[in-house]
Design goal:
Elements: H1 12-51, E1 55-58, E2 70-74, E3 83-93, E4 96-110, E5 116-120, E6 131-133, E7 138-140, E8 147-148, E9 167-170, E10 175-179
């Protein structure tokens, strides 16, 4: 007749699966560490640019100061007539650096008391560049005929608001520094972009 198999001695049944589980668990942990160790620096390399702020450097190589002002002109260059000045900066975004990029433009003028007037050259209607007309002494947008007086107030109902003023300061060396910002076009409120 056939003989029935004998069960293993007690104690061996519970030990085999436990040992097998521990060895498999340790193998999994070691494999995970070996796999993830090079992956963590790779992931950090790719997300690092997203964590950095965009940095701009001025025309002379000076970074925009801590308050956000960039050098655009000197006081000797200004008079009572508005002057169109491009805002030039080196931009660094992600891994790329863009030297001498035009980030926008401003109109600057200075009265006899030394007070500077600074307007963003973008029209608040649709964002076209406003032109200053010497003869009529007003700012006119060539796109949709928006018009502004010498003090930046709108003179017709086309633009939704007056010209956007910008903060400025004069440093110790007589340089005019502007906190350049762009604002959303087409709305009544002055909302930075």
């Amino acid at each position: 007749m056939s003989e029935r198999p004998q069960p293993p001695p007690t104690g061996e049944i519970g030990d085999l699966p436990r040992r097998s589980f521990l060895s498999r668990f340790l193998t999994f942990c070691i494999g995970a560490v070996v796999t993830l160790a090079p992956a963590v620096p790779a992931v950090m390399f790719f997300i690092d640019p997203l964590m950095r702020k965009k940095r701009a450097v001025g025309m002379t190589g000076d970074a925009i100061d801590a308050e956000g002002y960039i050098k655009v002109a000197t006081t000797e260059q200004l008079d009572s007539s508005p002057r169109y000045i491009k805002v030039i900066a080196d931009l660094q975004d992600f891994w790329n650096k863009f030297p001498d990029s035009e980030v926008g433009a401003v109109y600057l003028s200075q009265d006899e008391q030394g007070e500077v007037t600074c307007f963003n050259a973008r029209c608040p209607h649709l964002g076209c560049t406003v032109k200053y007309e010497e003869g009529s002494q007003e700012y006119v947008c060539p796109c949709h005929a928006s018009a502004f007086s010498l003090d930046g107030k709108r003179t017709n109902e086309i633009p939704p608001r007056d010209m956007d003023t910008l903060e400025w300061k004069i440093d110790d060396e007589g340089n005019v520094r502007v906190r350049f910002q762009k604002f959303r076009a087409g709305i009544h409120e002055k909302v930075p972009v």
